[in-house]
User: What shape does this take?
Amino acid sequence: MSQEKRIPVSKAEEATVRSHQPGEAVFRSILSEDVDWKPFPAFPPSVRLAVIVDQPSEPGVYVIRSRYRMA
Assistant: This one.
């Protein structure tokens, strides 16, 4: 019989605990070498953006990272 690990949290915290993404039971890490940095026309050429979680063009929560490299 498997045992589920429980982390003690307050009632307020318990109400906000949820999975990372719909259908994912655990948090998934994203390695820096797997990030796909792309230029974005609204920013100077030295700025790169990467969509980390989900898609900004679709409804819902998403995560974008930005990076600036000095010339």
In short: Helices lie at 11-16. The first helix runs from residue 11 to 16. The radius of gyration is 18 Å.
